[in-house]
Structures are given as C-alpha cells and as structure tokens.
Amino acid sequence: MLIFSRNFHLSPFLAAWLSRSCRFDNRLRPPGIGRNCLFDNTLIALQLQQARMVTFSHESAASAAARDPDVQLMLKVRAGCQRSFEALLTKYEDRVRGVISHLMGGVTYSDDLTQEVFLRVYRARRTYVVGAKFSTWLFTIANNVVLNARRTLARRHEVSFERDPSFRDNPLDAFASTPRDASPVAAAETSEVRQIVRDCIDRLAERQKAAVVLCDLDGLSYTGVADAIGTSADAAKSLIHRGRSNLKQMLESHARRGNIL
Questions:
Q1: What's the CA gap between 14 and 2, in Å, rounded?
Q2: Which of 113, 166, 220, 235 could be stapled to 231 by a disulfide with Cβ–Cβ 3.0 to 4.6 Å?
Q3: Across residues 205-234, what is the average pLDDT?
Q4: Model confidence, pTM
C-alpha cells in the first residue's frame, strides 16, 4: 500500500510502471487524484496541494458560518427546538417579505410567498448542513421561491401586481419615510418619490434588480448575493454595479423632468 506524505518521490521507472499497471482503487485514491491519473511526481504534488487548499478553504468557510448566531439557532431547529424556529421567523419575516415585495413588483403575493419560504426552511430542518451564513441560505431560498412564482405567473399571463401605497415592508422607507407631522402636500410628495424609486427598481433587468435589492436593501455581501442568485461573487458585483448605474440614470432622468426635487 502506498503512503503519501507532504514530501514524497517516485522514481521515473516506478512511476511509469504504476501508470501502466496500477490505477487507484476508488476507495483508496487520495483526494485530488483522478481514477486514471498518471503517476507523474509534479502532477501528483500539484493535485495534492490543490486538494489541500480546496479542503482548507471549504473548512474555513464552514467554520466562519458556524459562528453565525442564526446558524446556531437553525442547528437547534434541526434538533427539534420550536422556539429557535420562532426566533428566526420573528427576526427575518419582515425582511423576507420586503425583499419579495421588491422582486415581485408589489405586495399582492408577498405574504403567501413569505410563508412558502419559511415552510421550506422548516421542511429542510432535518437535512440542514452548515455551509454559509443563515441569512445567505435563507435568501437563496427566497430567491428560488420568487423565481418559481414568476414562472408560474408568466404561464398564466398574469402581469399586473397590486401596489400598496404605504409599502410598509419596503426597506427604502428608511430614507424616504414621511414624518407624522408632515403637511398633506409634503406627505404626497414623499409618497410620490417613493413610488418613482420603486418603479425605477422594477424596470431593472431581473438579475440586476435581485442583486441590488439583496445588497442595498437587505445588506447581503457580494458573496451572499452570489449565493442567493446562483452566480459568482465577481458576477454579482458586476450586476450590482450595473444595476446601481442604471437606477441612477433613471432617477436623474426623473430629476431633470422635475419629478424629483
């Protein structure tokens, strides 16, 4: 049996013989070595090094995620703790509803889809594996639920969505809220600005809209956005930058027309 260590050497003769005669048994093959790999010293060394790096990277990401307090709550949910699930529901329900409202272009379906998201979380509790922050995992589920809903609506040719004038679950209200003592005129103007911003967001390409909403409104990192929409961190960063640029151009166009002061 061959024992591989960090430093090892096979003679050219032995390497050639092994390459012709001995393929790794699948159960004994070291990580990173293919079933039909030739026993070239340099190649094997590189493959083993890459395997160690990939394993270390994966373990580091999982270890970092495991320190997330919400991941700890989800692990308790996996163990059968109902209160931990209720705590996660209380913390994230409004955030998920707000994101879904943005991605769906209105609030008509937000309650039903939010419920579907948390039903999926609960159903997945027994098979839950720590691989990312809980919020990243959750918004990946939310994004998938929205994509499924939009496909269903497209098949039904339903294209109109009810608008909620107050849009209480919209994170944009944090910078565009109306003071309680505002005059009716000021309140109307603020509401109109919010509506313009929402309309501009709705006009973004779907993946740009999802990336901007998840990053700028829900605070996910580039990596978190990438995991949620199923792409690389670089691609997510590009989508966010293009979405912000397009949104800025649309808002500047409204400003030039006097719609935004």
A1: 12
A2: 235
A3: 84
A4: 0.51
